[in-house]
From TrEMBL:
This protein's name: Endonuclease/exonuclease/phosphatase domain-containing protein
Entry annotated with the keyword Coiled coil: yes
Record's keyword terms, sorted: Coiled coil
Gene3D superfamilies attached to this UniProt entry: 1.20.5.170, Endonuclease/exonuclease/phosphatase
Domain of life of the organism encoding this protein: Eukaryota
Source organism per UniProt: Petrolisthes manimaculis
Coiled coil segments of this chain: 5-81
Length: 135
């Protein structure tokens, strides 16, 4: 009987030690979770900032496109004697998604279709012909 009691006491001490270790592990895990939550909040904040920057860049691009169209109209008036239509293009690179390349082709086609028959068209820029299937 005494032997059983000693064994039980020993088992209890071992269990208490295991419980202390588990509690310590839980505290560490909680600390790690708080750190991860903090990192997630920071990442979300960074994402919101990037999204805001992207919206600003998109707005700037639309403004630049509008300014280019104005300059093209001014250029058209300035070259009234010999109608010349100039545009600078930068085609998407070969590794870009096909949708982006198709969008570029459509924009190019739209630009060219705006030109009156008999006008001179000058297209310059980086055309990345291999990515557009024009090789």
């Amino acid at each position: 009987m005494k032997k059983d009691i000693r064994k039980l006491k020993k088992d209890i001490r071992k269990l208490e030690k295991d419980i202390r270790k588990l509690k310590k592990d839980i505290r560490k895990l909680k600390k790690d979770i708080r750190k991860l939550e903090k990192d997630i909040r920071k990442l979300k904040k960074d994402i919101r900032k990037l999204e805001k920057d992207i919206r600003k860049l998109e707005k700037d691009i639309r403004k630049l496109e509008k300014d280019i169209r104005k300059l093209e109209r001014i250029q058209r008036v300035a070259t009234k004697m010999i109608p010349v239509y100039c545009t600078v293009l930068y085609a998407p690179q070969q590794r870009r998604p096909n949708e982006e390349k198709e969008e570029f082709r459509e924009k190019l086609s739209d630009r060219i279709s705006e030109v009156l028959r008999g006008d001179i068209v000058i297209v310059a820029g980086d055309m990345n012909v291999y990515s557009l299937g024009l090789e």
